[in-house]
Specification:
Number of strands: 7
Helix content: 10-25%
Shape: globular
Strand order of the largest sheet: 1-2-3-4-5-6-7
Structural class: alpha/beta
Organism: Mycoplasma haematolamae (strain Purdue)
Largest sheet: 7 strands, mixed
Number of helices: 4
Order of helices and strands: HEEEEHEEEHH
Protein name: Type III restriction enzyme, res subunit
Strand content: 15-25%
Radius of gyration: 18 Å
CATH topology: tt1808, chain A
CATH class: Alpha Beta
């Protein structure tokens, strides 16, 4: 029951972020730019929410009841297992789970698996479908760009600038 309350809050946040929510057995990935599918069946159990952008699976959300609070990072292994699962009615060739969230009704953690060193971080709410679509199109993540900046040479800089 408590997890159901968290899911109601998650549903509200997804809708506010521009996602269309559907149940798995009524699932139509072309109904909107961003579709969140509840209880998507996988070979390792049902995922709380799978996220589709332009009909392609791109992410998932693992929901937990609110009393998980700060322990929400303990769910990351479960989320990774789901991300590597085979999703029912999804072509495995186009099935790339890049974005994952662990969420209670109060806390939302986000990970982009395309980061060279991926780690979860707290976000205020779920990203909009247009944002995830843009990140998919760009290919490289901002964190990877930052990691690949050239080394700063001291040359003509003062000590306080280096």
């Amino acid at each position: 029951m408590l997890e159901q309350k968290a899911r109601q809050t998650i549903d509200k946040k997804l809708i506010e972020s521009g996602w269309l929510i559907q149940d798995f057995y009524d699932f139509n990935p072309s109904a909107a730019l961003g579709v969140a599918v509840r209880e998507h069946v996988t070979d390792s159990g049902p995922v709380d929410y799978s996220l589709f952008i332009k009909c392609r699976l791109c992410g998932l959300i693992e929901a937990k009841k609110d009393d998980w609070g700060e322990k929400i990072t303990e769910v990351e292994d479960q989320t990774r297992r789901y991300a590597n699962s085979v999703f029912k009615n999804v072509d495995p060739i186009v099935c790339t789970v890049r974005f994952v969230y662990e969420a209670t009704g109060q806390i939302t953690q986000f990970t982009d698996y395309q980061d060279q060193i991926c780690r979860s971080r707290r976000v205020y709410t779920f990203h909009r479908p247009k944002t995830l679509e843009k990140w998919i199109r760009e290919g490289e993540t901002i964190r990877n760009h930052l990691r690949n900046l050239p080394i700063l040479e001291k040359q003509n800089l003062r000590d306080c600038q280096f």
